[in-house]
Design goal:
By secondary structure, this protein is mainly α. The protein has seven helices and three strands. The protein has two domains: 89 residues, Orthogonal Bundle (Arc Repressor Mutant, subunit A); 71 residues. 63% of the residues lie in helices and 8% in strands. The protein has a three-stranded antiparallel β-sheet with strand order 1-3-2.
Length: 175
């Protein structure tokens, strides 16, 4: 079963315009959606077909010139209602913080200080450089929603880096 995030992204893409699964996958790639939602190419294909099977989208096979046939998907009224419900549900969820490095922090006291500092410094550098990378991407996004999402991501990376720096100082003192 797809996560609600994947369904929202697929149905939202179909609200924008009818498209093939390939175009949808390319749109998600171009918008850098995979940076903040885990959705693979096979997942796009699998889920758009499932959404058709469930009546949230319709697929029409088309052939343009010499190109091979492709299925172009459109959202149904049932799909629009599902999209609205999913948006309401997702907006009502409590915020989730799920950083992959949390087990490192939970066990940092089990390594020597030099190793601990190196681990934390690596995390700080990774988060700061990622924030700078994301900052560089933001101007390339035409859509306000995309820019705002990426700004939130960049700010979060900076917030984590600053928190880690304070944590390191509290744990080990000035180095």
């Amino acid at each position: 079963m797809a996560s609600h995030s994947i369904e929202i992204m697929i149905l939202g893409a179909l609200i924008e315009r009818p498209m093939s699964a390939y175009e949808m996958d390319k749109t998600m790639e171009d918008r850098n959606i995979r940076r903040w939602i885990r959705i693979s190419s096979p997942s796009v294909y699998r889920n758009v077909i499932r959404l058709c099977d469930e009546g949230y989208a319709d697929g029409t096979v088309v052939k343009e010139g010499e190109m091979p046939e492709k299925t172009v998907y459109t959202i149904t009224d049932k799909g629009r209602a599902r999209f609205a419900d999913l948006m309401d549900e997702a907006a009502a969820l409590p915020a989730r913080v799920d950083f992959g490095f949390l087990p490192v922090l939970a066990n940092i006291g089990l390594v020597d200080e030099d190793t601990g500092r190196a681990l934390i410094d690596g995390l700080i550098e990774t988060h700061r450089s990622t924030a700078e990378h994301v900052d560089g991407l933001i101007p390339s996004y035409e859509r306000l929603e995309a820019r705002a999402t990426m700004e939130l991501c960049a700010d979060t990376y900076r917030l984590v880096a600053d928190h880690l720096a304070r944590f390191e100082q509290e744990l080990y003192g000035k180095g």
